[in-house]
User: Fold these one by one.
Assistant:
Number 1:
Amino acid sequence: MIKGSNAIVTGSSRGIGRAIALHLARRGANVVVCCLSRVDAAEEVRERAEAMGVRAVVVQSDLATEEGARLVVERCVEELGGVDILVNNAGMSHLSPIQSMEDRDLERVLRVNLFSYFYMAKHCVADMLRRRVPGCVVNISSIMSMIGLAGGTAYAASKGGVTAFTVCLAREVARHGIRVNAIAPGYIETEMIGWMPEDYKAKIIPRIPMRRFGTGEEVARAVAFLVEDATYMTGQTLILDGGIMID
Ligand code: NAP
């Protein structure tokens, strides 16, 4: 399923998305590398992917709008011939006490973390149905939607929405051979958690049974499992958190 297929990985200029795009390229997929503003970083991912012998395209767009999502899917169809794999990964973090939550911030978090997943799935599924291919969607959620984080109501709600969205979309498209699953990572070492001071990290690590943060590459391998090996699995959320949820 991965080799020779076309994969869109949103938010793949850096962090988890970058690791996913490069892992899929290593396994033989052509990739659409997406970014919001860091075009240089996305170009570097494209060059690395092409050096692995696959085709790669960079698209810069704001996925918080349907136009931005449509642009990515159109470029994938025009340049690679269609979409087989969609990894909805682009996201932003947000921390604010509820009493000082600004409406525009709430809307931005929901647009970037949840609406973009709808928009991307809408246009990718339409292409998969048109071409009658057994496509695969992987949505990156977060364990924050299950364990919570003080100040993280908007972020956690957006990620809880991703889980519910995954279940419903899986039901909707299963009969067409399209599978939809999610991954809920715990703490993964990227810029998204780069704001954490070392003493804060030192307090979190002992609460992780595996006593470390995860890596983007570990998330990428789980994506490859869902795409390639989990052929009878749909509507599920795979938890990848070093054991936090069993503690
Ligand atoms: P990151 O390092 O902050 O990277 C975010 C990526 O999303 C970048 O490629 C960024 O593009 C892109 N992006 C942000 N807003 C966008 C928008 N409006 N339109 C298009 N692209 C946009 O984040 P990460 O840690 O890799 O996180 C990736 C996903 O995993 C997110 O959904 C996050 O919620 C989830 N997650 C992360 C963790 C963690 O601990 N890191 C844990 C659980 C879940 P630019 O580079 O151009 O800005």
Note: The chain is about 45% helix and 15% strand.
Number 2:
Amino acid sequence: MTDPKPQSPDHLAEQVAAAEAAAADAVAGASSPAELGRVQAETVGKRSAFARLNTTLGSLDPDARRTAGAVINAARARVVEQIEARRVVLAAAERHARIEAERLDLTEAVALAAGGESSQPVLRGHLNLVTQTRDELEDTFVALGFAVAEGPEAETDWYNFEALNMPPAHPARGMWDTLYLKLGAPETVLLRTHTSPVQVRLMERQRPPIYAVMPGRCYRRDTPDARHLPVFHQIEGLVVDRGITFADLAGTIEAFTTSFFGPDIHSRLRPSYFPFTEPSGEFEVTCPICGGDGCRTCSGSGWIELGGCGMVDPNVFAAVGIDPDVYSGFAFGFGIDRLAQVRTGLADMRALLDNDIRFLTQF
Ligand code: FA5
């Protein structure tokens, strides 16, 4: 369509006004940035009404041409401004629509649980079996009058070995395959191999009487298998007071055993060796799976080994400045994962780490 040639400045002004009004309507009617792009080409592009009006100016004398050109350009510039303003509005609307479309409605799952459209059950998470066991152990010992203490997992050689009566190169250090950290001088900082260093820290900061348990994570260069993990948990017990004897140790372990497992489970001690206790023992409990009759879990013996124990060695007291002529004490330590394994009849300890929902939901 070609516009008629302007007959006069007034006629041209009318045609410019009509083109501007039509362009304004088209811009206002564009409903997306893509559509606005097309409107822009039609209203201010090379084939627009403004472009066609410009081609008619050649018939005018120079002054009239300049004036008419300015009128056309001013109108076209106003339309361009409207297009830019509309583009901002449409882009914002488009972004908002996209966010709405991509929004994850988490309330939907709750609605389903509350008996919404489909009756799919929502699974509620819970603490891992090891954490449950740790909490239960803490409760049992607190009920027996023990406090709960903690210590760092990254330890110095002093706390993990030396203060526990194992000077450098002591052969007993080989009982624990140790993971050292690249920190300070070589082999001075490590991941604790047991919870026994917390005993030392506790005795340093608290004078006797001490009745405490110390649960926590331990690390060893152990290859994972059915009864070992490289990262596992222990709980340490420490009692330091006047007149503490081996009979107190045996009585405490028996009291803990019946309180934790019930009256049918008992404990017994066997001689052993630990550098930080003298005498030392290993304590065993009636196999909770077979009740002492003998089964695969206890290799037919009716007993399961839980951990080590003994009377605190005087050299350990010396390292923390407690007078062994005034005080005596006992300590014990056992594996929490091992205890959870024994109690639930779990064949392979690695299942504790597998994150298999079918396993986890059983506890
Ligand atoms: C100790 O670690 C001594 N600190 C225990 C102790 C404390 C003795 C106080 C005397 C006085 P042992 O290395 O035997 O001892 O470990 C104790 C228990 O930790 C084991 O019986 C076992 O239940 C658990 N345990 C040891 N290594 C692992 C492992 N790699 N994975 C899972 N449990 C383990």
Note: Residues 129-360 form a domain with the BirA Bifunctional Protein; domain 2 fold (CATH 3.30.930.10).
